[in-house]
Amino acid sequence: MKNIHFLILLISINFVLSSCSAKKENQSAKMTYKPSVLMTKQDIASPVAATIPHTYSVHGQQVNDPYFWMRLSDDQKNAKTPDAQTQNVLDYLNAENAYREKMMSHTEAFQTKLYEEIIGRIKQTDMSVPYKENGYYYITRYEEGKEYPIHSRKNEALTAPEEIMLNVNEMAVDFAYYSISGRTVSEDNKILAFGEDTVSRRQYTLRFKDLTTGSFLPDVIPNTTGDVVWANDNKTVYYTKKDAALRSYQIYKHILGTPIKSDVLVFHEKDETFSTDIYKSKSKKYLIIVSSATLSQEYRILEADNPSGTFRLFHPREHKLEYDISHFEDKWYIRTNKDHAENFKIMVTLESNTHKSAWTDLMPYDANIYIEEFDIFKNFMVLSVRKDGITQINIRPWDGKPSHYIQFEEDAYTTFTGYNPEFDTDLLRLDYSSLTTPNSTYDYHISTKKLELLKQQEVVGNFDASAYTSERKMIKAQDGTMIPLSIVYKKGFPIDGTRPFLLYGYGSYGYSMDPYFSSSRLSLLDRGFGFAIAHVRGGQEMGRQWYENGKFLTKKNTFTDFINCGEYLIANNYAAKDLLFAQGGSAGGLLMGAIMNMRPDLWKGVVANVPFVDVVNTMLDESIPLTTGEFDEWGNPKDKTYYDYMKSYSPYDNVEAKAYPAAFVTTGYWDSQVQYWEPAKWVAKLRATKTDKNPLLMYCDMETGHGGASGRFKRFKETAMEYAFLLDLAGLGE
Question: What CATH architecture does domain 175-321 belong to?
Answer without folding.
Answer: 7 Propeller (2.130)
